[in-house]
Design a protein that fits this description.
The protein is of the alpha+beta class. Helices cover 49% and strands 11% of the residues. The chain folds into 2 domains: 129 residues, no CATH class; 274 residues, no CATH class. It contains 17 helices and 12 strands. The strands form 4 sheets. Strands 3, 4, 5, 8, 9 and 12 form a 6-stranded mixed β-sheet that branches. A two-stranded antiparallel ribbon has the order 1-2. Its cofactor is a divalent metal cation. It is found in: Nucleus.
Amino acid sequence: MPYSAHPETVSEPRRQHLYTMDQRNLILWHHYRKKKMCLALFVFIMGLLDKQTPNRRVWIKHWVARRKALGLHHNLFLELQLEDPDKYRRQVIIDLYCTVGVDNRCGFRCLRMNSDMFEALLARVTPLIKKQNTHLRESISAAERLSVTLRHLATGETQESLSLTFRLGQSTISGIVKETSRAIYNVLKGDNLKFPANKDEWRAVALEYEDKWNFAHCIGALDGKHFKIDPPLRSGSLYYNYKEFFSIVLLALVDANMRFIYVDVGTNGRISDTGIWNKCSLKPYLENLNIPPTPLPGSQDLFPYVVVGDEIFQLTDQVLVPYSKDYLRHRLDRKIFNYRLSRARRCVENAFGILVARFQIFRSAMRYDPEDAKYIVLAACALHNWLRSDSVGRAMYTPPTSLDSEDIMAGTVNVGDWHNANAAGVGRFHFQGGNRHAAGPLMLRDMWCEYFNGVGAVPWQERMVTRVR
């Protein structure tokens, strides 16, 4: 029988079946409609959220991805190294002109290092800074990491500027400088920041002072500097010093070759200069060194081994300081003593002066937290010693005109080029009064004064004191 949908022609069982199918289709249609409405609502909400959400970070910015094609290290550095090594030494390894004042430029070189020295340093730090390549990206090479760090330390160029120059992210630049500074310090400190290990090594330091600076029994020149930093977060006035800026302190002992043999870095600037000396580890070490006193050349009297400092330090059996101005009136002998002591102290003054002149990052506040700034200072001290460790590096890093020197015939001091450098980011230690010297050290200083005016005199000392300079 042909099919008919008319109710009168459909049997009762068939009618019930059709009714059930209609109900099911209606239910399915309602479910489909709900799903469609939910999907539309979801798309609408996601569209609203997408408009309100900032642009997501990309995996790597396009201008950074072109680092190998257009970046400084992969192009100009390597090109000059191959085609013009002299230009590479002078211009690329950071021998740049620097601003001394407003639009006032001088030819004062910043950091001299030839390509051989750069490669030697690179070989030492590579195991500590080299990163593994991944399937997704190629790592930044150790050579580029070292180039970025040296340029930052030597020129003081900001992280923002370095980011554009090297085509690296600013946070990447910051991480590279922090890590590589630590690596430089760790690989160089063993043989370039070596503290004398025994009494014989201290005597060797004293012999060099006697040969080069006519000051026997001197085992180092002592001084300190405040290095300006940005205010650390949540530190209050902890690093705020009496000079009215935030700082960490470098206290250093320097040998006759203007190399650092002891450095204490990181003390907060709020502590007074004398307090910094009293809390450092060198003070008790010298008090317990116990090198037996011996006669000075030409004398029968026993003299101890001493370090020389300026008037901010307290006069003790181990630390020799000059007479204050109140004790110099009409006393040529004491002026001669002060001259002989300042002549030996010139080593530490030159060392600090060259350090700040060559590493221009210290010419303004370091934008690092105190711990990272500490390792930047330590890396600079280690590099200073390393660059002065052989004749080639010494000639490039500290040519004769860069250092204070004497013209003993004319009775004058020739001022080194480092005095022309902008040292706005560094503060000197200053005498704040209050030092009371014990009777024993006062008598000992008078013995030194008598020696320098007697058998220990040098022919030109009176000329240097009396001639107007």
